[in-house]
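Lab notebook page, bench 4
Experiment: in silico fold of construct C2
Operator: M.H.
Input chain length: 298 residues
Purpose: comparison with the prior construct
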Amino acid sequence: MPEILKLFHGSKVVPSVLEAGRFYHDVFGSWVYEAHYLPYEDSNNSANLMGGTFSMEMLAPKNPGGTTPSARFLQRHGPHFINIAFWVKDAPGLAQRLLDKGVRIALPGGNTISEFPAEDFGYFLPHPKDMFGSLLEFIEDNPIFHDPRRAPWWASEYWSERHPLGVQGLSHCTVAVADLEGATKAYGDYLGCPMIHEGENKEQGTKSRYFAIGDTVIELAHPTLAESDIGRHMAAHGPIVYAFTFKVRDLGKARDHVQSLNLRSIARGDHTFELDPAQAFGAVYGFTVQDIPGRPTA
């Protein structure tokens, strides 16, 4: 039976992996463990470990005015998160499940299919429109992939115990959705993921539902106020991956660290703050000491 196992990485399109990489190093103490050229995207790529066990893939089109998917995404959205990737068991079986639900599938090479192919494949992406704004990537779990988190010597204590952010791990990823009921069906029915919590934040202007997907929590956030940050973001970008929020040990120390780098911190209640996306290459990064009710334990 197909199974979503764990988060592999988030992905972000940027103008320059070097410039964005400096930001990630200064703020998160990131470590680039892989860097190469992607011919099918005509882009430079880097994989950045940050916040302990979290990885962010960055793609920088060599021709920002070109016609590759990442270049067209950059033209439409500017620097922005693009997708979330997961390791899975039986990727073809999960793809077939989604096809049976009427979800279009993109295979390696970018071809979108509505019927299962005869040839084998190692990863796929459900069409984001059929997933109500979520661009997800599902990759067959394979130990031959270069990922230091698989190594027996790997440890994340530096980021949790010695780095000034004190990141304990990823709290959740937020996807901005226009159709909360449709997105709920996509995660609950199509993917078979349990909803663990729901609530409304009137101050931030969101109604949210939280789903456990593998070892990760995804928040489906629907704007209830047009003039809220996420409401304005939705108007500009449509349904899309919106933010990554990290659990930290001490909110005050984390805030002191980002302010020491002359970065603006935006309070989101008493227990959470975010970086100003204008200073973070278009990214919304949050830091919190709150736990999400119902989060499954490892």
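Observations: The radius of gyration is 18 Å. Residues 159-288 form a domain with the 2,3-Dihydroxybiphenyl 1,2-Dioxygenase; domain 1 fold (CATH 3.10.180.10).
Next step: discuss at group meeting.
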